[in-house]
Amino acid sequence: MTDIVASRVTGRIEGDFVVFMIGMRINKPLKLHKWVPVARAMPKMLKELEAAPPEIGFLGHTGLSRVIVQYWRSFDHLERYARDRDALHWPAWAEFNRRMKDSRGDVGIWHETYRIHAGDYEAIYSGMPPFGLGQAGVQAGVGGENDSARQRLGTA
Fold this sequence. Notes:
Elements: E1 5-12, E2 17-26, H1 32-51, E3 58-61, E4 67-72, H2 75-83, H3 89-100, E5 107-116, E6 125-128, H4 133-136, E7 138-141, H5 149-152
Antiparallel strand pairs: 1-6, 1-7, 2-4, 2-5, 3-4
């Protein structure tokens, strides 16, 4: 189990970065042959990304849940991985589209991509293990000059 940080900390990532949120919605639970392959593909992709060298640009993720949040160095890095025919995503995406061709309503998938400019975000964690930005980037203590959300955003 990850150690709990028993203080208030903020998460920081140096420079611009990308937040990529992705999820799946099972619309027809009895059609296991439609959604189980999707559910099995994501953990494999995340393991591949965790093991990848830093040049890939993957900074980290929140883990498996209804919504997975990934952090990337840039949109170019994210897109390069998504389109890499030698990585796990591309064949899984092609297979999903083949399987869903005539039944798009059986399983829903979605993603949202946000380009974040340096300093245009804030994060706070209290009594948490490293998580989110604080896990993908670095953690810093909170107090004094960065005690409030407005201060952490630089708008105080």
